[in-house]
Amino acid sequence: MSSAKESPRQKMIGMMYLVLTALLALNVSKDILDAFVIVNKGLENSNLNFTERNEKLYADFDLAKTVDPVLVTPNWKKAQDARKESEKLVAYIDELQKQMITETEKVEKSVADTLQMQNIENKDKYDIPTNIMIGDSEDGSKGASRELKNKLIQYRELLTGYILPVDRKNVKVDINTDDPKFSEENENWELYNFYDRPLVACLTILSKLKNDVKNSESLVVDYLLKQTDGEVMKFDTVAAKVVSQSNYVLLGGEYKADVFLAAFSKTKKPEITIGENIKLDVKNGLGKYTVKADKEGIVDYEGMIRITSAKGKESVFPFKSQYIVARPSLTVSLDAMNVMYPGLDNPVSISVPGIPTENLSVSATGGTLIATGSGKYNVKVSGGTKVDLNVFATMDNGEKKNMGTMSFRVRPIPKPKAKFWEITDSGVMSKSVAEAQQGLIAQYDNFVYNITAKVTSFKMIVFTASGVLELQSTNNMLTPQMKEQLKLIRRNSRIMFEDIQAVGPGGAVKLSPLTIKIN
């Protein structure tokens, strides 16, 4: 039998079959895997765009609600519900993507959360994604794909319920969970999308579904907002507002304020004037007012906002405001004492009225600074008898101004006192109490800083019937010989502690002696 000549279409089908067979033998080619990476990147960018668009819609909704809360609030609440459910569904899909990457790449979830698709090594692996999405079921009912499908259906039904029946033909929530009509193996939605699909394909499909969710959110929120557009601009109360960055201005600086109509139209630009001849540039209802602060004191100003309605009626809204111009005033205060001590963290607070603390730069002469936040610093004295703190401020125009210098005296840390039981100088102690003691301590009396010192050595002098006995300790503890003498000592005898050495934040120091009478 002679074979019939193949048509061009048959040749093409035959060639496609050979190509598909080759792809199957090679699993999936690198070019196809790279193509998924490119598609997924585009979907991620689209998702970011949808997020930005949706945030703008919610901001517009918030503004509309402040203008007419009675009319707008019902639809605003629906939009908030849509936002909440969208965030939950996107978070669920995100977790599926992280799980696939975590289990396929054998990495921690924290790594999977930041791993870019182009850096995934096992792009062509399909067994783990299939197991996650399909499970051990034949139709995907025991895998995550069925749960995902049900969540998508519930989300679609929620959003569709916000659309009036008369509008549902023109405003349609485009989230398709139908089984494919042209599947050679009669696959359902779950199998068609996720069965035996390589990792990059599954991740891309999930990115597409996030895209559908955010797009549907945008569609419905925009629809809900437009339902209120017809009445939002019919205000019953309109007020002029002046908002300044600060009403306290330094001499030589600038006073800045936003002057605007509380409810405005983007298509109707109001006219804003200050005094008789200053006309402000207006954008989105905001007039920018900038004037040089060239004299001290309280400055009052006033102006008018004029806006014309669609029917040509002009409305005028007067406003008044004021600001204070003052010379730069540096305030530096020590949080604990009015002097500084070497060896300690000396806390200080630095501020200049009218200037944010983040715009201040501080340096120290005779010490080093460690910033602790919100205009607070710790100063360590490096030597000398005083520390100077120099403060500069960065003004709004970028200019650096010297705010001044504050000087503080440096005093040595006071000596601690040696203490045996409750006695710090001299006193009387019972024999039983003396026998119970373990050693000497060093403490600072009435010093504002909570610091400690430690005794490093001392002598104990015991006056006995046979003479004077001197015993030495090389730390802060009583030696066994000292404890034995305390047991043998007679009542009305005296003991002394001398040559007491200690070390504290200020270094080594010799402490005053102790004299104790035993009764």
Description of the structure:
The protein has 519 residues and is an alpha+beta fold. It has four domains: 224 residues; 87 residues, Immunoglobulins (Immunoglobulin-like), CATH 2.60.40; 79 residues, Cadherins (Immunoglobulin-like, Sandwich), CATH 2.60.40; 102 residues, Immunoglobulin-like. Helices cover 34% and strands 29% of the residues. The strands form six sheets. Strands 18, 20, 21, 22, 23 and 24 form a six-stranded mixed sheet that branches. A five-stranded mixed sheet has the order 2-9-8-4-5, with no helix packed on it. Helix 2 packs parallel to helix 8, helix 3 runs antiparallel to helix 8 and helix 6 packs parallel to helix 8. The radius of gyration is 40 Å and the shape is flat. The N terminus is likely disordered.
Short account of what is shown:
This protein is an alpha+beta fold.
* Share of helix, binned: 25-40%
Q: Give the distance, in angstroms, between the N- and C-terminal Cα atoms.
A: 135 Å
Structural class, from secondary structure content? alpha+beta
Query: What is the mean pLDDT?
Result: 84
Q: What number of structural domains do the residues give?
A: 4
Report the sheet-strand fraction.
Answer: 25-35%
DSSP summary: helix tally: 11
What are the low-pLDDT stretches, counting only 5+ consecutive residues below 50? 1-7, 9-14, 16-27, 230-237
How does the major sheet shape up?
6 strands, mixed
Rg result: 40 Å
Give the beta-strand count: 24
The global form is: flat
